[in-house]
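Q: How would the structure tokens look for this protein?
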Amino acid sequence: MSNNTNHRDPGKKVSVSQNFLTSRKLLERIVAVSNINRQDTVIEIGTGKGHLTRTLCRNCRRLYSVEIDKTLYEQAKEKLSDCENLKLICGDFLHYRLPSGINYKIFANIPFFITTKIIRKLTETANPPQDIWIIVEKGAAKRFIGRDRETTQSLLLKPGWDIEIAWHFRRSDFHPMPSVDCVLLHLARKKTPELTKKEYRAFRHFVEHSQKYGLFGKRSLLTRKQINTALKREKLPPLTPGGEILYIQWLCLFRCFQRMQ
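A: Here is the predicted structure in token form.
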């Protein structure tokens, strides 16, 4: 993505950092990969030039598209005036009030530098979307999934979300062409989260503290004996120095920590 910034106009900063998809055939294919259908309410983050917006309109019941750049918003309003199921909104999505009391889905092609903020907003709101389809850097997607090694981000997402890469793009699919590989990341909300809201707050503390100070050492929240016993009791593999710690092991150790309180 472009590194150009404009501190006076955040909308300008976003617009110069955007990589657009314009191929109708490709847009139809990636929307078809999603589970969006004619019964769905969808929120698009970033109207951009309106190509993806029009495709989403053809595939959902109602679309709300939020665009921070005033120039792009005005152009889209004129270009998409024939889309009767579309409501365009000019504003910063990070300050946009998400729906309460209804089911909805998200589809987004956003500048990469706000990816983490967007995903955190969507997953931590009182009424999260059923599904999130978001175009991100491949490296960022691997961090959210916990590919190769669990991260703080992946550990905090997994109690409530199933995460997968749904599509791999070519760099030439975008205009302008990005300098990194991009994918379509899918986050599906679990029908039954593995942690209650109260447990999740404690889990966040446990993960962030353990990631910062380590599971072993003077500031560890559990002793080595407690860790080994908890994993053995659940028939999970023991931890090895420098080895990968699986999400299921983290959850097991957190449960152990809870019992010790």
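The longest strand covers residues 161-168.

Residues 1-8 have pLDDT under 50 and may be disordered.

Upvote if useful.
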